[in-house]
Amino acid sequence: MMSPGHAQQMDILLIFIGVMLLLVLGVIALSMAKSRRQKKALPKAPEEVPPQVRAEEKETVVAKEVVKEKEALAPVAPPVAPVPTAPTEVDLKEALRKTEENLFGRIRGLFKTDAVGKPLEEIEEILYTSDLGPTTVQRLMAAIEEKLSRKEKADYESVREALKEEIKNIFAGSHSTHPGEGILSKIQFADEGPTVLMIVGVNGAGKTTSIGKISAQLAGQGKKVLVAAGDTFRAAAGGQLKVWTDRAQVEIFSPEGVTDPSAVAFDAVSKGKAQGYDIVIVDTAGRLHTQANLMEEIKKMKRVMSKVIPEAPHETLIVLDANSGQNALMQAKEFHGALSLTGAILTKMDGTAKGGVAVGLAQELQIPIKLIGVGERIQDLRSFSSHDFVESLFVH
Ligand SMILES: Nc1nc2c(ncn2[C@@H]2O[C@H](COP(=O)(O)OP(=O)(O)OP(=O)(O)O)[C@@H](O)[C@H]2O)c(=O)[nH]1
Ligand SMILES: [Mg+2]
Q: Other CB atoms closer than 10 Å to residue 76's CB: what's the count?
């Protein structure tokens, strides 16, 4: 039993504990209220972001995870030769700078050094040494003679305008005037089934390189491209083409052990037709127009393709190295006689002083120049526009 004194002490202790508890609870309540006030003053916490934003964030996270999964599952890309990656397009005026200097730069210089009474013979000589070809030079000289007065013939601006006008007329006759709207606009597409392009030309003109560049651009436009390794002549040719098709990310048709280029061409067009390809591009071995047996072989290649698709090849394009100047004209004439070309690809326009050959080609063959190569990178191929070309030549 507890004595009455003890019981009194216990009561006091209980009251003290109760008061202490109340005090502690009060302090807690106060600090909670304070922190709530601070939260209100802070910027929006993540929980308060609108629900649609949270949903977008979630989607991004999910998408990132899917990409990660895909990356993990994707087959390892085959080793490909490094491609220069600068995406910048070569400036046409820059690419044609040497041609401009060689052609109109020299005519300009002529007028600067001797301001009056320009001898037309000097202009004629400059034109003759500019890889335009004799027929073109005669046509240009006739235009100056006929259209300009004596006084105008001594005036650089008048001579320049007369030449510019006549060169435009020459291009108009060769169907090269089409403005540069990308290479798709330069290709005659088949109404149905694959469009077949046959690429021909002498050794080292730039056939394989141009095929790589064309393929990359067509694949970039969503076309399904098949490239046929029709150069069975050189052992290394297939490998070179493979480097380009890997870069362009298109398929190559290069059957093991087949040495007959006509068989490769036939099978490639058949495959293109059976498997729904949009474009079949056939590479060929380089050859000189003087090599009669090789010219017969390439004619046969062309013939067998038409057995699969009567209109094939829809385009027979000659690749010409602009540096070969007048020789390029000769090559084009001979190949045209054998294969009825539908157009030309003029390569290595960058850095050559002989770009004037484009005018000669338009004048003497009326073959449209469809594309021009302006460098060694995969993106260095442009659709040819005579308007842009002439403007780049007459830039000063
Ligand atoms: N600067 C420059 N070089 C080019 C251009 N086109 C091609 N070349 C270079 O020309 C060389 C020959 O190119 P290829 O594509 O192998 O020529 P090809 O006509 O296939 O040669 P063959 O198969 O031997 O008949 C390569 O070194 C290319 O890089 C161009 O537009 N500009
Ligand atoms: Mg080649």
A: 5
Task: Enter the pTM of the model.
Answer: 0.78
Beta pairing partners, 228:
253, 282
Q: What is the DSSP letter of 378?
A: T
Strand order in the sheet with 343-347: 251-253, 225-228, 279-282, 195-200, 315-321, 343-347, 369-373, 381-383
Q: How far is Cα 371 from Cα 386, in angstroms, rounded to an integer?
A: 11
Tokens of 221: 């436009």
Amino acid at 90: V
Q: For ligand 1, which residues put their CB under 6 angstroms from it?
A: 201, 203-209, 231, 237, 286, 319, 347-348, 350, 373-376, 380
Residue 338: CB atoms within 10 Å: 16
| Cβ–Cβ under 8 Å, residues 389 and 96 | yes
pLDDT of residue 31: 61
Q: Are 344 and 317 in contact (CB under 8 A)?
A: yes
What pLDDT score does 29 carry? 63
**Tally: H helices and E strands in the chain:** 16, 8
- What 8-state DSSP symbol labels residue 356? T
- Rounded Cα gap, residues 281 and 310, in angstroms: 16
Q: What is the pLDDT of residues 95-154, one digit of tens each?
A: 899 999 988 888 888 887 755 555 788 899 999 998 899 999 999 999 999 999 988 988
Look at residue 219 and give its three-state secondary structure: helix
Atom of ligand 1 nearest to the CA of 374: 31
Looking at the CA of residue 347, tell me the nearest atom of ligand 1.
31
For residue 27, what pLDDT band results from cuts at 50, 70 and 90?
Answer: low
Quote the CA–CA distance of 164 and 155 in Å, as a whole number: 14
More confident residue, 80 or 7: 7
DSSP state of 355: T
